[in-house]
Design brief:
Order of helices and strands: HEEEEHEEHE
Length: 124
């Protein structure tokens, strides 16, 4: 589901915006492309330090949307830059082998946001 172009974007720094919504307004939190780790089954792991409202929203409604991109990766028709909208479900993990692997890479984390991707659409 995740294309080669998606992985090219991850190799370049850029802002990642994650949108969740519980019973209230949508909430946006940001991270960096370089913090995303894709597992062999194409789940996305993201180190979380705060993200408390994101976690509360996902406990009420596990759906999320995420936008990411890079101006350094050519998009459609050689457009300078490309981005993706990812949709999926999310949950936070606080233990286990993937948590430990992420903690070694990102010592600041308190939890890991795990995203199960349902779609990833290139936008530019």
């Amino acid at each position: 589901m995740l294309s080669e172009k998606f992985f090219d974007v991850l190799k370049n720094e850029g802002v990642v915006s994650i949108v969740t919504w519980g019973l209230g307004e949508p909430h946006i939190v940001n991270t960096w492309n370089s913090y995303l780790v894709v597992t062999s089954d194409e789940r996305i792991l993201i180190p979380a330090y705060a993200m408390r409202r994101t976690e509360n929203n996902l406990n009420q409604n596990n759906k999320l949307k995420m936008a990411l991109g890079s101006k350094d990766v050519l998009g459609y028709n050689n457009y300078q830059g490309t981005g993706f909208i990812v949709e999926g479900t999310g949950k936070f993990i606080e233990s286990g082998p993937e948590y430990e692997m992420m903690k070694e890479r990102f010592s600041f984390l308190t939890r890991v946001l795990e995203i199960t991707v349902t779609s990833a659409k290139q936008m530019l």
